[in-house]
Amino acid sequence: xxxxxxxxxxxxxxxxxxxxxxxxxxxxxxxxxxxxxxxxxxxxxxxxxxxxxxx
Length: 55
Ligand SMILES: [Zn+2]
Prior knowledge:
Blueprint: E1 6-10, E2 16-19, E3 35-37
Antiparallel strand pairs: 1-2, 1-3
The structure holds zinc ion.
Zinc ion (ZN) is lined by residues 10, 12-13, 15, 26, 28-29, 31, 33.
């Protein structure tokens, strides 16, 4: 069983992507950014959705 995907947000450009681990390099701004976990864990959210309270 694979671990669930998480939603990551680039701290540099705000790009979000869903995968199990954040990439080393942001595919949007091509920088080595810090990716913030913005995964929405509340039951109302769709899988892989972003929590609107974050970011
Ligand atoms: Zn970026």
